[in-house]
Amino acid sequence: MLYRRFGRTNLQMPVFSCGGMRYQYKWQDVPDREIPADNQANLEATVRRAFDLGIHHIETARGYGSSEQQLGKILPALPRERLIAQTKISPKENPKEFLQIFERSLSLLKLDYVDLLGIHGVNTDQHLEWSKGCLDVVRRLQAQGKVRFVGFSTHGSTETIVRAIETNQFDYVNLHWYYINQQNWAAIAAAQRHDMGIFIISPSNKGGNLFAPPQRLVDLCAPLSPLVFNDLFCLSHPPVQTLSIGASCPTDFDEHLKTLPLLDRADEILPPILKRLEDAAIARLGKDWYFNWQTGLPTIDETPGRLNLSAVLWLRNLAIAYDLVDYAKMRYNLLGQADHWFPGARIDQIDLDLLRPCLNNSPFADKILEVLRETHKLLGGEAVKRLSQQ
Length: 390
Hints:
This protein is of the alpha/beta class. The protein has two domains: 3-264, TIM Barrel (Alpha-Beta Barrel); 286-389, no CATH class. Helices cover 39% and strands 12% of the residues. The chain has helices at 37-52, 67-71, 95-109, 125-143, 158-166, 185-193, 215-221, 226-235, 254-257, 266-285, 287-292, 309-322, 325-332, 368-379, and strands spanning 3-5, 12-14, 16-19, 57-59, 84-89, 114-120, 147-153, 172-175, 197-200, 242-245. The strands form two sheets. The chain has an eight-stranded parallel barrel, surrounded by five helices. It has a two-stranded antiparallel sheet with strand order 1-2. Helix 3 crosses helix 4, helix 5 runs parallel beside helix 6 and helix 12 packs antiparallel against helix 13 (325-332). The longest helix is centred in the last third of the chain and has 20 residues, at 266-285.
Protein backbone atom coordinates (compact mmCIF):
# COMPACT_ATOMS: atom_id res chain seq x y z
CA MET A 1 0.00 0.00 0.00
CA LEU A 2 1.07 3.59 -0.60
CA TYR A 3 0.42 6.38 1.87
CA ARG A 4 0.11 10.15 1.64
CA ARG A 5 0.12 12.82 4.31
CA PHE A 6 -3.54 13.70 4.98
CA GLY A 7 -3.12 17.46 5.12
CA ARG A 8 -2.69 19.15 8.48
CA THR A 9 -3.91 16.07 10.33
CA ASN A 10 -0.46 14.60 9.53
CA LEU A 11 -2.07 11.17 9.38
CA GLN A 12 -0.42 8.76 6.97
CA MET A 13 -3.47 7.96 4.85
CA PRO A 14 -3.57 4.96 2.52
CA VAL A 15 -4.31 6.06 -1.05
CA PHE A 16 -7.38 3.79 -0.91
CA SER A 17 -9.93 3.98 1.91
CA CYS A 18 -12.49 1.37 2.92
CA GLY A 19 -15.86 3.08 2.61
CA GLY A 20 -18.69 1.60 4.66
CA MET A 21 -21.88 2.05 2.64
CA ARG A 22 -22.06 -1.06 0.43
CA TYR A 23 -21.48 -4.00 2.76
CA GLN A 24 -23.97 -3.22 5.52
CA TYR A 25 -27.23 -5.16 5.89
CA LYS A 26 -29.78 -2.33 5.82
CA TRP A 27 -30.01 1.39 5.22
CA GLN A 28 -32.00 1.64 8.46
CA ASP A 29 -31.12 0.78 12.05
CA VAL A 30 -32.19 -2.77 12.88
CA PRO A 31 -31.95 -4.96 15.99
CA ASP A 32 -28.74 -6.99 16.13
CA ARG A 33 -30.71 -10.23 15.99
CA GLU A 34 -32.03 -9.34 12.52
CA ILE A 35 -28.58 -9.00 10.94
CA PRO A 36 -27.86 -12.24 9.06
CA ALA A 37 -24.73 -14.05 10.16
CA ASP A 38 -23.46 -14.33 6.59
CA ASN A 39 -23.82 -10.58 6.04
CA GLN A 40 -21.90 -9.81 9.22
CA ALA A 41 -19.23 -12.34 8.32
CA ASN A 42 -18.82 -10.76 4.88
CA LEU A 43 -18.48 -7.27 6.40
CA GLU A 44 -15.87 -8.46 8.87
CA ALA A 45 -13.96 -10.35 6.17
CA THR A 46 -13.98 -7.21 4.00
CA VAL A 47 -12.61 -5.03 6.80
CA ARG A 48 -9.95 -7.60 7.69
CA ARG A 49 -8.90 -7.84 4.03
CA ALA A 50 -8.63 -4.05 3.92
CA PHE A 51 -6.35 -4.15 6.98
CA ASP A 52 -4.27 -6.96 5.52
CA LEU A 53 -3.72 -4.76 2.45
CA GLY A 54 -2.68 -1.78 4.56
CA ILE A 55 -6.02 0.00 4.06
CA HIS A 56 -6.54 0.96 7.69
CA HIS A 57 -8.85 3.92 7.08
CA ILE A 58 -12.39 2.65 7.70
CA GLU A 59 -15.04 5.23 6.84
CA THR A 60 -18.78 5.18 7.58
CA ALA A 61 -21.64 7.46 8.62
CA ARG A 62 -24.60 7.58 10.96
CA GLY A 63 -26.72 7.81 7.81
CA TYR A 64 -25.51 4.43 6.52
CA GLY A 65 -28.10 2.40 8.38
CA SER A 66 -26.67 -0.64 10.13
CA SER A 67 -23.08 0.08 9.04
CA GLU A 68 -21.90 1.56 12.35
CA GLN A 69 -23.40 -1.14 14.54
CA GLN A 70 -21.98 -3.87 12.34
CA LEU A 71 -18.54 -2.24 12.33
CA GLY A 72 -18.79 -2.09 16.11
CA LYS A 73 -18.38 -5.86 16.16
CA ILE A 74 -15.04 -5.76 14.32
CA LEU A 75 -13.32 -2.40 14.89
CA PRO A 76 -12.52 -2.97 18.59
CA ALA A 77 -10.69 -6.16 17.58
CA LEU A 78 -8.33 -4.25 15.27
CA PRO A 79 -5.06 -2.66 16.45
CA ARG A 80 -6.22 0.81 17.54
CA GLU A 81 -2.84 2.43 16.94
CA ARG A 82 -3.18 1.59 13.23
CA LEU A 83 -6.91 2.17 12.74
CA ILE A 84 -8.08 5.47 11.26
CA ALA A 85 -11.79 5.45 12.11
CA GLN A 86 -14.11 7.96 10.48
CA THR A 87 -17.81 8.55 10.81
CA LYS A 88 -20.02 11.38 9.59
CA ILE A 89 -23.08 13.13 11.02
CA SER A 90 -25.40 15.51 9.17
CA PRO A 91 -25.38 19.15 10.31
CA LYS A 92 -28.23 20.02 12.64
CA GLU A 93 -29.84 23.37 13.39
CA ASN A 94 -29.83 22.35 17.05
CA PRO A 95 -26.26 21.50 18.15
CA LYS A 96 -27.60 19.42 21.05
CA GLU A 97 -29.15 17.04 18.52
CA PHE A 98 -25.80 16.77 16.74
CA LEU A 99 -24.13 15.85 20.05
CA GLN A 100 -26.75 13.20 20.83
CA ILE A 101 -26.28 11.61 17.43
CA PHE A 102 -22.50 11.61 17.82
CA GLU A 103 -22.74 9.83 21.18
CA ARG A 104 -24.98 7.25 19.52
CA SER A 105 -22.43 6.74 16.74
CA LEU A 106 -19.54 6.32 19.17
CA SER A 107 -21.57 3.83 21.18
CA LEU A 108 -22.42 1.78 18.08
CA LEU A 109 -18.82 1.77 16.87
CA LYS A 110 -17.69 0.68 20.35
CA LEU A 111 -14.73 3.04 20.22
CA ASP A 112 -13.47 5.54 22.78
CA TYR A 113 -12.83 8.10 20.04
CA VAL A 114 -12.93 8.59 16.28
CA ASP A 115 -9.92 9.86 14.41
CA LEU A 116 -12.00 11.73 11.84
CA LEU A 117 -15.47 13.19 12.33
CA GLY A 118 -17.13 14.59 9.23
CA ILE A 119 -20.08 16.95 9.12
CA HIS A 120 -22.02 14.99 6.54
CA GLY A 121 -23.57 16.73 3.57
CA VAL A 122 -22.60 20.41 3.75
CA ASN A 123 -24.47 20.83 0.49
CA THR A 124 -26.02 24.29 0.91
CA ASP A 125 -25.22 27.58 2.57
CA GLN A 126 -27.82 26.75 5.22
CA HIS A 127 -25.96 23.54 6.07
CA LEU A 128 -22.77 25.57 6.35
CA GLU A 129 -24.47 27.97 8.74
CA TRP A 130 -25.76 25.07 10.87
CA SER A 131 -22.25 23.62 10.89
CA LYS A 132 -20.99 26.55 12.94
CA GLY A 133 -22.96 25.42 15.99
CA CYS A 134 -21.99 21.80 15.34
CA LEU A 135 -18.32 22.82 15.26
CA ASP A 136 -18.68 24.28 18.75
CA VAL A 137 -19.79 20.82 19.86
CA VAL A 138 -16.90 19.20 18.01
CA ARG A 139 -14.36 21.45 19.75
CA ARG A 140 -15.68 20.25 23.11
CA LEU A 141 -15.49 16.64 21.93
CA GLN A 142 -11.91 17.21 20.83
CA ALA A 143 -11.06 18.59 24.27
CA GLN A 144 -12.59 15.44 25.78
CA GLY A 145 -10.48 13.21 23.52
CA LYS A 146 -13.47 11.78 21.65
CA VAL A 147 -12.60 13.33 18.26
CA ARG A 148 -9.15 13.96 16.82
CA PHE A 149 -9.88 15.88 13.58
CA VAL A 150 -12.96 17.39 11.98
CA GLY A 151 -13.88 17.70 8.31
CA PHE A 152 -16.93 17.82 6.10
CA SER A 153 -18.39 15.84 3.24
CA THR A 154 -20.28 17.49 0.44
CA HIS A 155 -22.32 17.02 -2.71
CA GLY A 156 -22.79 20.78 -3.00
CA SER A 157 -21.76 23.30 -5.62
CA THR A 158 -18.10 24.19 -5.98
CA GLU A 159 -18.90 27.69 -4.70
CA THR A 160 -20.46 26.31 -1.50
CA ILE A 161 -17.55 23.92 -0.97
CA VAL A 162 -15.01 26.72 -1.34
CA ARG A 163 -16.94 28.89 1.14
CA ALA A 164 -16.81 26.05 3.68
CA ILE A 165 -13.09 25.55 3.08
CA GLU A 166 -12.34 29.26 3.43
CA THR A 167 -13.75 29.28 6.98
CA ASN A 168 -10.50 27.43 7.86
CA GLN A 169 -12.44 25.46 10.49
CA PHE A 170 -12.04 22.04 8.90
CA ASP A 171 -9.05 19.69 8.74
CA TYR A 172 -10.18 17.72 5.69
CA VAL A 173 -12.89 17.45 3.04
CA ASN A 174 -14.71 14.54 1.36
CA LEU A 175 -15.79 15.62 -2.14
CA HIS A 176 -16.50 14.40 -5.66
CA TRP A 177 -13.80 14.69 -8.32
CA TYR A 178 -12.84 12.14 -10.99
CA TYR A 179 -12.37 11.90 -14.74
CA ILE A 180 -16.00 12.34 -15.80
CA ASN A 181 -16.60 15.18 -13.34
CA GLN A 182 -13.70 17.55 -12.70
CA GLN A 183 -15.70 20.62 -11.72
CA ASN A 184 -14.53 20.66 -8.11
CA TRP A 185 -10.86 21.24 -8.91
CA ALA A 186 -11.14 24.81 -7.60
CA ALA A 187 -12.31 23.37 -4.27
CA ILE A 188 -9.38 20.94 -4.21
CA ALA A 189 -7.01 23.84 -4.86
CA ALA A 190 -8.61 25.81 -2.01
CA ALA A 191 -8.30 22.81 0.33
CA GLN A 192 -4.65 22.46 -0.62
CA ARG A 193 -4.03 26.13 0.24
CA HIS A 194 -5.45 25.44 3.70
CA ASP A 195 -3.43 22.23 4.05
CA MET A 196 -6.59 20.15 4.37
CA GLY A 197 -6.80 16.42 3.80
CA ILE A 198 -8.53 15.61 0.48
CA PHE A 199 -10.69 12.48 0.25
CA ILE A 200 -12.43 11.64 -3.04
CA ILE A 201 -15.94 10.22 -2.63
CA SER A 202 -17.20 7.30 -4.71
CA PRO A 203 -14.83 7.59 -7.69
CA SER A 204 -15.86 4.21 -9.08
CA ASN A 205 -19.63 4.37 -8.54
CA LYS A 206 -20.47 8.05 -9.01
CA GLY A 207 -17.50 8.19 -11.38
CA GLY A 208 -19.42 6.17 -13.98
CA ASN A 209 -20.46 2.80 -12.48
CA LEU A 210 -17.00 1.56 -13.37
CA PHE A 211 -17.60 -1.86 -11.85
CA ALA A 212 -19.69 -2.57 -14.97
CA PRO A 213 -18.42 -0.25 -17.73
CA PRO A 214 -19.80 -0.19 -21.28
CA GLN A 215 -17.62 -1.79 -23.95
CA ARG A 216 -16.87 1.57 -25.57
CA LEU A 217 -15.30 2.84 -22.35
CA VAL A 218 -13.39 -0.42 -21.92
CA ASP A 219 -11.92 -0.01 -25.41
CA LEU A 220 -11.07 3.67 -24.91
CA CYS A 221 -9.28 3.05 -21.58
CA ALA A 222 -7.25 0.06 -22.79
CA PRO A 223 -4.80 -1.29 -21.77
CA LEU A 224 -6.19 -0.26 -18.37
CA SER A 225 -9.64 -1.10 -17.13
CA PRO A 226 -11.85 2.01 -16.75
CA LEU A 227 -11.67 1.55 -12.99
CA VAL A 228 -7.87 1.48 -12.91
CA PHE A 229 -7.68 4.37 -15.38
CA ASN A 230 -9.90 6.48 -13.16
CA ASP A 231 -7.92 5.60 -10.02
CA LEU A 232 -4.67 6.45 -11.78
CA PHE A 233 -6.10 9.68 -13.14
CA CYS A 234 -7.17 10.81 -9.67
CA LEU A 235 -4.04 9.74 -7.82
CA SER A 236 -1.74 11.21 -10.47
CA HIS A 237 -2.77 14.61 -9.04
CA PRO A 238 -0.66 15.10 -5.88
CA PRO A 239 -3.30 17.08 -3.92
CA VAL A 240 -5.56 13.99 -3.95
CA GLN A 241 -4.63 11.84 -0.97
CA THR A 242 -7.15 9.00 -0.84
CA LEU A 243 -9.94 7.44 -2.90
CA SER A 244 -12.92 5.72 -1.35
CA ILE A 245 -13.44 2.07 -2.27
CA GLY A 246 -17.02 1.21 -1.40
CA ALA A 247 -16.23 -2.48 -1.05
CA SER A 248 -19.15 -4.90 -0.81
CA CYS A 249 -16.95 -7.98 -0.39
CA PRO A 250 -13.25 -8.80 0.16
CA THR A 251 -12.43 -9.18 -3.55
CA ASP A 252 -13.67 -5.68 -4.44
CA PHE A 253 -10.20 -4.32 -3.66
CA ASP A 254 -8.45 -6.48 -6.24
CA GLU A 255 -8.88 -4.38 -9.38
CA HIS A 256 -7.98 -1.16 -7.55
CA LEU A 257 -4.69 -2.65 -6.38
CA LYS A 258 -3.52 -2.86 -10.00
CA THR A 259 -3.20 0.95 -9.88
CA LEU A 260 -0.41 1.03 -7.30
CA PRO A 261 2.54 -0.14 -9.44
CA LEU A 262 1.49 2.26 -12.20
CA LEU A 263 1.66 5.50 -10.22
CA ASP A 264 5.32 6.17 -10.99
CA ARG A 265 4.52 5.85 -14.70
CA ALA A 266 1.31 7.90 -14.76
CA ASP A 267 2.89 10.62 -16.94
CA GLU A 268 3.67 7.99 -19.55
CA ILE A 269 0.49 5.88 -19.32
CA LEU A 270 -2.27 8.48 -19.04
CA PRO A 271 -1.71 10.92 -21.96
CA PRO A 272 -2.59 8.52 -24.81
CA ILE A 273 -5.73 7.35 -22.98
CA LEU A 274 -6.78 10.92 -22.20
CA LYS A 275 -6.26 11.89 -25.84
CA ARG A 276 -8.32 8.91 -27.02
CA LEU A 277 -11.17 9.78 -24.63
CA GLU A 278 -11.19 13.42 -25.73
CA ASP A 279 -11.07 12.56 -29.43
CA ALA A 280 -13.89 10.06 -29.03
CA ALA A 281 -16.08 12.60 -27.25
CA ILE A 282 -15.38 15.28 -29.87
CA ALA A 283 -16.21 12.83 -32.66
CA ARG A 284 -19.67 12.25 -31.23
CA LEU A 285 -20.49 15.62 -29.65
CA GLY A 286 -18.69 18.04 -31.98
CA LYS A 287 -15.69 20.15 -31.05
CA ASP A 288 -17.57 23.38 -30.38
CA TRP A 289 -20.08 21.68 -28.08
CA TYR A 290 -17.39 19.63 -26.29
CA PHE A 291 -15.40 22.69 -25.28
CA ASN A 292 -18.17 25.25 -24.76
CA TRP A 293 -21.42 23.53 -23.73
CA GLN A 294 -21.26 24.91 -20.18
CA THR A 295 -20.72 28.53 -21.24
CA GLY A 296 -23.44 30.89 -20.06
CA LEU A 297 -25.73 28.26 -18.53
CA PRO A 298 -28.07 29.49 -15.78
CA THR A 299 -27.78 28.02 -12.28
CA ILE A 300 -30.55 25.91 -10.79
CA ASP A 301 -31.86 28.92 -8.86
CA GLU A 302 -31.95 30.99 -12.08
CA THR A 303 -33.91 28.34 -13.97
CA PRO A 304 -37.75 28.21 -13.97
CA GLY A 305 -38.82 25.01 -12.23
CA ARG A 306 -35.24 24.52 -10.95
CA LEU A 307 -34.05 22.46 -13.89
CA ASN A 308 -30.52 21.24 -13.18
CA LEU A 309 -29.47 22.22 -16.68
CA SER A 310 -25.74 21.69 -16.22
CA ALA A 311 -26.21 18.20 -14.73
CA VAL A 312 -28.73 17.16 -17.39
CA LEU A 313 -26.49 18.19 -20.29
CA TRP A 314 -23.46 16.61 -18.60
CA LEU A 315 -25.29 13.28 -18.32
CA ARG A 316 -26.42 13.54 -21.93
CA ASN A 317 -22.82 14.12 -23.00
CA LEU A 318 -21.61 11.04 -21.10
CA ALA A 319 -24.31 8.85 -22.58
CA ILE A 320 -23.49 9.93 -26.13
CA ALA A 321 -19.70 10.23 -25.88
CA TYR A 322 -18.90 7.07 -23.91
CA ASP A 323 -22.10 4.96 -24.01
CA LEU A 324 -22.57 5.58 -20.28
CA VAL A 325 -26.31 5.33 -20.84
CA ASP A 326 -27.16 3.20 -17.81
CA TYR A 327 -25.19 5.49 -15.51
CA ALA A 328 -26.74 8.61 -17.06
CA LYS A 329 -30.26 7.16 -16.78
CA MET A 330 -29.75 6.30 -13.14
CA ARG A 331 -28.49 9.77 -12.25
CA TYR A 332 -31.02 11.61 -14.45
CA ASN A 333 -34.00 9.81 -12.93
CA LEU A 334 -32.71 10.62 -9.46
CA LEU A 335 -33.40 14.31 -10.13
CA GLY A 336 -36.43 15.46 -8.17
CA GLN A 337 -35.96 12.60 -5.69
CA ALA A 338 -32.70 13.37 -3.92
CA ASP A 339 -33.31 16.83 -2.39
CA HIS A 340 -30.04 18.71 -1.78
CA TRP A 341 -27.89 15.62 -2.46
CA PHE A 342 -28.54 15.89 -6.21
CA PRO A 343 -30.82 18.89 -6.66
CA GLY A 344 -33.01 20.00 -9.51
CA ALA A 345 -35.89 18.78 -11.66
CA ARG A 346 -36.06 16.51 -14.68
CA ILE A 347 -36.90 17.94 -18.08
CA ASP A 348 -40.47 16.61 -18.07
CA GLN A 349 -41.16 18.43 -14.80
CA ILE A 350 -40.80 21.93 -16.23
CA ASP A 351 -42.22 24.10 -19.02
CA LEU A 352 -39.34 24.30 -21.48
CA ASP A 353 -40.72 27.43 -23.14
CA LEU A 354 -40.13 29.33 -19.89
CA LEU A 355 -36.46 28.45 -20.17
CA ARG A 356 -35.78 30.50 -23.31
CA PRO A 357 -35.02 33.85 -21.60
CA CYS A 358 -32.45 32.12 -19.36
CA LEU A 359 -30.37 30.93 -22.30
CA ASN A 360 -29.33 34.27 -23.77
CA ASN A 361 -25.73 33.92 -22.58
CA SER A 362 -25.28 30.45 -24.07
CA PRO A 363 -23.67 30.12 -27.51
CA PHE A 364 -26.13 27.25 -28.07
CA ALA A 365 -29.29 29.10 -27.07
CA ASP A 366 -30.98 28.20 -30.36
CA LYS A 367 -30.49 24.45 -29.95
CA ILE A 368 -30.59 23.67 -26.20
CA LEU A 369 -34.37 23.22 -26.00
CA GLU A 370 -34.30 20.60 -28.74
CA VAL A 371 -31.27 18.96 -27.14
CA LEU A 372 -33.21 18.76 -23.87
CA ARG A 373 -36.20 17.10 -25.53
CA GLU A 374 -33.90 14.53 -27.11
CA THR A 375 -32.14 14.02 -23.78
CA HIS A 376 -35.37 13.17 -21.98
CA LYS A 377 -36.24 10.64 -24.69
CA LEU A 378 -32.80 9.09 -24.23
CA LEU A 379 -32.62 9.07 -20.44
CA GLY A 380 -36.17 9.36 -19.10
CA GLY A 381 -37.64 6.50 -17.09
CA GLU A 382 -38.96 5.60 -13.67
CA ALA A 383 -37.92 7.86 -10.82
CA VAL A 384 -34.91 6.55 -8.88
CA LYS A 385 -34.50 6.85 -5.11
CA ARG A 386 -31.27 7.42 -3.26
CA LEU A 387 -29.81 4.27 -1.69
CA SER A 388 -30.70 5.48 1.80
CA GLN A 389 -34.36 5.75 0.75
CA GLN A 390 -34.60 2.25 -0.67
